[in-house]
Amino acid sequence: MSNLIIPKHIAIIMDGNGRWAKRRGLPRNAGHRAGIKAIEKTIEGALGLGVKYLTFFAFSTENWKRSKDEINGIFGLIRDYLKENPDYFEKKNICVKHIGEISPFPDDLKDELAKSEKRTSKNDKLVLTLALNYGGRDEIVRAVNKIINSGKVEIKYKDIEKNLDTNFLPEPDIVIRTSGEERLSNFMMLQMAYSELYFPKLYWPDFDGKQLLKAIKIYNKRERRFGGITQ
Ligand code: IPE
Ligand code: IPE
Ligand code: MG
User: Fold this and answer.
1) DSSP per-residue codes, 83-100
2) Of 17, 29, 63, 149, which is the active-site residue?
3) pTM for the full model?
């Protein structure tokens, strides 16, 4: 285990909360509540393993299609999670960030997020990024509009990169999607051009540090070539 290569950036599409709850005869929001516990366990695992960047897809630009009740439930859970953990972030040296366009979110959630980001901005053991009202296409459109507004007439890929929400993140080394679905659902498509993809067959609330280690072991068996050839 000691000579495992630890991916620098692990990005996670947390899927299957609803099915986890349904299987237990519980409301969908009970699944989201259990999903928060899985986030906590995964962060602990990541800290122990020395992962530098951990990104969670928490709410997509398409998730507005869900019921008001479910959406408000998710917002409340994220708000409470941030509200309850400032000491933990401090103690563990975690820097909280977000990607996505959060202006349509309720003020209480935006306030907690701003507070967490401000309080933890100097922390540097783990960058914990929450993707909130995030969509890869929306991110690209916003980036391109920023470039147009800056007056540029010809651009390089670097210009796009610099204007993406993810400009403070390295590209993900591995993207994990739970629940058995094998799709990207508009998550960081540009950034994962060369990421390893892993689709464990379990619902998000059942994920934890042990599962993270399993993912890292699988990552270690992959051969990344980036278009080149193996020596
Ligand atoms: C993922 O779980 C959480 C969010 C999208 C916020 P789902 O709620 O999509 O769970 P399933 O896919 O319905 O089981
Ligand atoms: C992706 O899951 C979004 C998040 C994990 C936040 P979804 O459950 O929304 O994706 P689809 O609808 O199954 O593609
Ligand atoms: Mg889903």
Assistant:
1) HH-HHHHHHTTEEEEEES
2) 63
3) 0.98
Name the catalytic one among 3, 15, 17, 80: 15
Closest residue by Cα to atom 10, ligand 2, is 185
Distance CA 86, CA 89 (A): 5
Q: Which helix (H) or strand (E) holds 140?
A: helix 136-149
Instruction: Enumerate residues lining ligand 2, CB below 6 A.
Output: 13-15, 57-60, 63, 181, 183, 185
Asked about 87 being catalytic, the answer comes back as no
Q: What is the pLDDT of residues 37-63, one digit of tens each?
A: 999 999 999 999 999 999 999 999 999
Domain map (residue ranges) of the chain: 9-135+172-220
- For 9-135+172-220, give the CATH class: alpha beta
Which DSSP letter does residue 14 get?
-
Q: Where are the beta strands (DSSP E) in the chain?
A: 9-13, 53-60, 94-99, 126-134, 174-177, 196-198
